[in-house]
């Protein structure tokens, strides 16, 4: 078999950020205002705090501002909804990110859905998902939308291909499946109750690991020449696919780290820039 293609999300994300700098500068020149991405962090989860910091740093790199809103662990749903309402009405805020997960006493779905559609740059609202699934415009969930950018950049054919998405979360597995379906792939969604999972994956031309378990998808489940998209990341610095065993059998694969992760943040920032362009009346590229 030929050497598999490395789907380098880290390099692609850097290239996208470079192009965003010019677009942000154009928005600032036209409006006199620097676009702001508001990030809401409820509680003191260290991993969530790290993700929020990374997103703030990405904003700085392209010339945007990040407004971090820290709320205590005991925050109620009503208090969080009020904060989201405030950000919805702020004309300088172009995008709103509510960092997942929130403390268990909060109705996360109600809070996600309170985000105004035009500021839902992380693609978490039911309305945005529904519009995307129907082929209408909405900002896609950042991770699957970033995966689609990788697929497009490397010219991976989707039409008529058998794609298996392992995982059905509302911000990753489900929107990923819809994006692939909208691009004419034949899509199977698998989950914890799926029977004969290895056999289903063995028929897949494209495998998306989005199950949240380290090295869950084994190398001997992968057919020769499959494309592997690993959306997982775990403390062991591995993803949801056992890439050591599976990647040599593939035609292309995303590494962990350096594959899907950087593209998630890049896509969030790009969608915030697009929201700023739309509000400024600038033709979106």
Describe this structure in words.
With 285 residues, this protein is α/β, with parallel strands linked by helices. It folds into two domains: 31-118, Leucine Dehydrogenase, chain A, domain 1 (Rossmann fold, 3-Layer(aba) Sandwich), CATH 3.40.50.10860; 142-261, NAD(P)-binding Rossmann-like Domain (Rossmann fold), CATH 3.40.50.720. It is 42% helix and 15% strand. The chain contains ten helices and nine strands. It has a six-stranded parallel β-sheet. It has a three-stranded parallel β-sheet with strand order 3-2-4, sandwiched between helices. Strand 8 (227-230), helix 9 (243-246) and strand 9 form a beta-alpha-beta unit. Helix 2 crosses helix 10, helix 3 runs parallel beside helix 4 and helix 6 crosses helix 10. The longest helix is centred in the N-terminal third of the chain and has 23 residues, at 9-31. The radius of gyration is 19 Å and the shape is globular. The protein starts with a strand and ends in a 5-residue tail after the last helix.
């Amino acid at each position: 078999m030929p050497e598999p293609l490395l789907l380098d999300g880290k390099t692609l994300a850097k290239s996208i950020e470079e192009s965003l700098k010019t677009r942000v500068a154009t928005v600032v020149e036209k409006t006199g205002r620097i676009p702001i991405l508001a990030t809401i962090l409820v509680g003191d989860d260290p991993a969530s705090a790290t993700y929020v910091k990374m997103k703030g740093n990405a904003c700085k790199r392209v010339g945007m501002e990040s407004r971090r809103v820290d709320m205590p662990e005991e925050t109620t749903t009503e208090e969080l909804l009020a904060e989201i309402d405030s950000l919805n009405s702020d004309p300088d805020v172009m995008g709103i990110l509510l960092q997942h997960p929130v403390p268990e006493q909060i109705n996360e779905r109600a809070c996600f859905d309170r985000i105004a559609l035009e500021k839902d740059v992380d693609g978490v609202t039911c309305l945005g998902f529904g519009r995307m699934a129907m082929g209408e415009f909405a900002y896609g969930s950042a991770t699957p939308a970033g995966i689609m950018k990788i697929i497009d950049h490397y010219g991976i054919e989707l039409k008529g291909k058998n794609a298996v998405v392992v995982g059905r979360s509302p911000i990753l597995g489900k929107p990923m499946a819809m994006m692939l379906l909208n691009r004419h792939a034949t899509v199977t969604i698998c989950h914890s109750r799926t029977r004969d999972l290895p056999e289903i994956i063995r028929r897949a031309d494209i495998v998306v690991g989005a199950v949240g378990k380290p090295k869950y998808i084994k190398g001997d489940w992968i057919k020769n020449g499959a494309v592997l998209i690993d959306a997982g990341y775990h403390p062991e610095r591995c993803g949801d696919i056992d890439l050591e065993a599976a990647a040599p059998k593939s035609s292309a694969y995303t590494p962990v780290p350096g594959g899907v992760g950087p593209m998630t943040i890049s896509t969030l920032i790009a969608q915030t820039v697009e929201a700023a362009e739309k509000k400024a009346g600038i033709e979106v590229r």
